[in-house]
Design goal:
Largest sheet of chain A: 2 strands, antiparallel
Oligomer: heterodimer
Helix content of chain B: 25-40%
Order of helices and strands of chain B: HEHEHEHHEHEHEHHEEHH
CATH class of chain B: Alpha Beta
CATH architecture of chain B: 3-Layer(aba) Sandwich
Structural class of chain B: alpha/beta
Largest sheet of chain B: 8 strands, mixed
Structural class of chain A: mainly beta
Radius of gyration of chain A: 18 Å
Number of strands of chain B: 8
Order of helices and strands of chain A: EHEEEEHE
Distance between the termini of chain B: 30 Å
Strand order of the largest sheet of chain A: 1-6
Number of strands of chain A: 6
Helix content of chain A: under 10%
Shape of chain B: globular
Strand content of chain A: 15-25%
Chain lengths: 106, 316
């Protein structure tokens, strides 16, 4: 990172940041010690995890899903492991108990 | 009942204007609050923040998590800067340099330090001058960014590094300053308190606050895993407990009309909320009874204000 930093001549006046939302370059996923794993079979798509996530790391994706019992959903909910900090709010708040926190091991 | 703009979580906009990759602690509810605020406000928004966790964590130079124009000047003047931005936009619209029909949201965001203590004068001035700015207070009840020092928003008996708990001191002596009541005394169009555990209630209040003509103020509780000493996964659970015990009451004052938006038919004992947090671990059962008495009085006051029992009796 340090080698990519601009020099003082390249920095805009007053140090303004001209690229909105460029914090996505910094991956906070490596802060995590426990990873949330969603069981798509148990998930009822209530979106509580998506609403409560402080890091916008729970994504709503256009992936239709059919459970073994025959329920059909138009979309799925997935976790963006690049940014998930592993706080566990999603697993704690999930009413269907569909999210498990699994330890990160190599 | 007033109109509810968002009836379920599926009605909320899917766009994110607070990007991932910000450096707020894991489990910090400020991320949740600001994400929803920006979802409701949309792209035509200018944000001013006071110094605080949010400002430091979202803009580590040369990166920024904001996808809307954002400015930070100093700790004490978020409301003054927002007033200036609003006046400048009005002038540009009058001169025809910006389309006068274009609605631009101006939002000032302060933490409890930047609102209760340091930024209070600027806030009071902004409210008195009547600028059309929404002020959001995210209240984590101490100066968390500099390492947990007491603020005007710290509740009674809470441990902080400047109100230590020992044989003589039991944390902070004084009760929390009733900032929302003080702001309401400025007779501004809209004042509300909200809780991130009740997302729909919170986003509807944000929407209403952005819509009214004139200044508006929303006070949101923000559990802080680092400063309140609890596991990051419990942030929302503790926020919910605050409302269920009556420690935090979700109300709104819309043009003089007072409403409690999240009624609690049966109240839990405050010990459930207190015992979940490390900052209250030095308290004995008698101390907790003192807090309970304080809450009972507050609930009685609110019920009298509404005219019926919106917050129910103690059940467990």
């Amino acid at each position: 990172m340090s080698s990519e930093l601009p020099t003082w001549k390249e920095i805009p006046i007053a140090g303004t940041i001209l690229e909105p939302g460029n914090s996505v370059k910094y991956k906070t996923g490596d802060w995590r010690t426990f990873r949330p794993v969603i069981d798509q079979e148990k998930c009822v798509r209530c979106l509580f995890c998506w609403a409560y996530c402080p890091d916008a790391a729970v994504k709503i994706v256009e992936k239709p899903y059919r459970t073994q019992s025959g329920r059909e959903y138009q979309f799925s909910v997935e976790i963006d492991y690049d940014y998930c900090k592993g706080c566990g709010i999603c697993a704690n708040e999930c009413p269907a108990k569909a999210i498990q926190m699994v330890e990160e091991v190599k | 009942m007033p109109e509810r703009y968002y009836k379920s979580l599926r009605d909320l906009p899917k766009e994110e204007y607070l990007a991932s990759g910000h450096r707020l602690c894991a489990g910090c509810a400020a991320g949740t609050i600001i994400r929803h605020l920006l979802k409701v406000a949309g792209p035509n928004t200018i944000v001013v923040t006071a110094t605080g966790c949010l400002e430091v964590a979202t803009t580590p130079y040369p990166l920024t998590a904001w996808r809307v124009p954002w400015i930070h000047v100093a700790f004490e003047n978020a409301a003054s800067v927002a007033s200036g931005v609003e006046a400048a936009i009005k002038a540009l619209q009058r001169k025809g340099l910006i389309d006068p029909s274009k609605r631009i949201n101006i939002i000032a965001i302060g933490g409890d330090g930047g609102t209760y203590d340091i930024g209070f004068q600027a806030l009071s001035g902004m409210l008195e001058r009547g600028h059309k700015v929404m002020y959001l207070l995210y209240d984590n009840e101490a100066y968390m960014n500099t390492g947990i020092q007491r603020s005007g928003g710290t509740p009674q008996f809470a441990w902080t590094t400047t109100t230590p708990a020992g044989r003589v001191w039991k944390g902070k002596h004084q009760p929390k300053k009733p900032i929302s009541d003080i702001v309401a005394a400025h007779r501004i169009p809209y004042v509300a308190t909200a809780n991130p555990a009740y997302v729909l209630d919170m986003v509807n209040k944000f929407r209403r606050a952005l819509e009214v003509e004139g200044p508006s103020f929303v006070h949101v509780i923000q559990p802080c895993p680092t400063g309140w000493r609890f596991d990051p996964s419990k942030s929302i659970e503790i926020a919910k407990l605050a409302t269920e015990t009556g420690m935090w009451i979700n109300w709104e004052l819309d043009h003089g009309e007072f409403r409690v938006t999240v009624p609690v038919p049966k109240r839990k004992h405050v010990k459930h909320y207190i015992r979940a947090q490390g900052r209250f671990r030095h308290l004995t059962d008698e101390d907790i009874e003192k807090i309970q008495e304080y809450i009972n009085k507050e609930v009685e006051r609110i019920n009298k204000l509404v005219g019926k029992e919106v917050i129910g009796p103690l059940a467990e």
